[in-house]
C-alpha cells in the first residue's frame, strides 16, 4: 500500500473550503446589521480570521496543556517520528507532549511547515511500541494529506461565530431600544456556527478513514492501529470529567474523540468499531 494522493479527500476538502468561504462571506454581509456598518464588519471579521488562522494551532496546544519537547526529553518518541517521517517521505513535524490522563494524540497546524504532532503521557504509557508507531503514523498521514488545514479553517469560523453569539447576547441584554440588529446577528451567527460544524463533521469522518489507511501504508501493520484504537477508546471511561472538559477544544483533531452525552450522529469521528472493521479488511487485502 502506498501513501499517495487521495482524490476523494482532496475533492471533499475543496468542496468544504468553497462552502466555508461562502458561509463566511454570507455571515460577514448579514452580520453588518449588528454594527450598522458593513465596512467595519468586514474589517473586523477579516482581522479576527487572520489572527485565529495564524495562532489557532498554538491555542489548541496551549488549551490542552501541551509543550514542545526536544530529543533530549523524549529521545525514543523523536526517533519514532523521524523514522516514520522518512518512510512517509515528508518533513519531520514538531513534537509536543501533554501531561494528562487522556490517552490520545492529534496533529495541528496551519500548514505543513508549522505542523505539530501532540501525544499525551498517558498514551505512551498504555500503548506498546507498535501501537504507538501506528498512532503517530496516523497523525503524520493527516499532515501529509493537509486536511488539518481545512479543519483549522472550519474551527476559526466556529470560534468567531461563537464569540459573536456570546458577546451579542451579553451586550444585547443591556439595551432597551432597537435590539433587532443584534437579534438578527445572533441568529445568523448561530446558523453559521451550525453550518461550519456540520461541514467540519462531514470532512472529519472521511479524513479519519483516510488517515487510518495512510497509517497502514506507512507502517504496514493495520492491526497495530486497530489495537491502539481499541485501547484508547476503552481508556476514556476512566478519565476524570475535568480532563475531558479541557480536551473538548481539540476533540475534532484527536485520533479518537472524547466521549460525551451527545449522540454518535453528532460525532466528528466514525465509530471505533467501524474503523477497526475497515482495518481488518485492509489486513485481508494485504494478505491476498
* Biggest sheet record: 4 strands, mixed
Classify the beta-strand content into a percent band.
5-15%
What general outline do the C-alpha atoms trace? Answer: globular
What is the percent of helical residues? 55-70%
Strand/helix succession:
HHEHEEEHHHHHHH
Put simply, the count of helices is 10
Task: Provide an overview of this structure.
- The chain has helices at 7-35, 38-63, 75-87, 121-126, 129-145, 147-172, 180-219, 222-235, 241-247, 272-287, and strands at 66-68, 94-98, 105-108, 116-120.
- It is mostly helical and 288 residues long.
- The chain has one domain (7-287).
- The longest helix is centred in the last third of the chain and has 40 residues, at 180-219.
- The radius of gyration is 20 Å and the shape is globular.
- The two termini are 12 Å apart.
Task: Summarize the model shown.
The protein is 67% helix and 6% strand. The protein contains 10 helices and 4 strands; from the N terminus they run ααβαβββααααααα. β3 (105-108) and β4 form a beta hairpin.
What key phrases describe this protein's structure?
288 residues; mainly alpha; four-stranded mixed beta sheet; 6% strand; globular
Helices and strands, with pairings:
Elements: H1 7-35, H2 38-63, E1 66-68, H3 75-87, E2 94-98, E3 105-108, E4 116-120, H4 121-126, H5 129-145, H6 147-172, H7 180-219, H8 222-235, H9 241-247, H10 272-287
Parallel strand pairs: 2-4
Antiparallel strand pairs: 1-2, 3-4
Helix pairs in contact: 1-2, 1-6, 1-7, 2-6, 3-5, 5-7, 5-8, 6-7, 7-10, 8-10
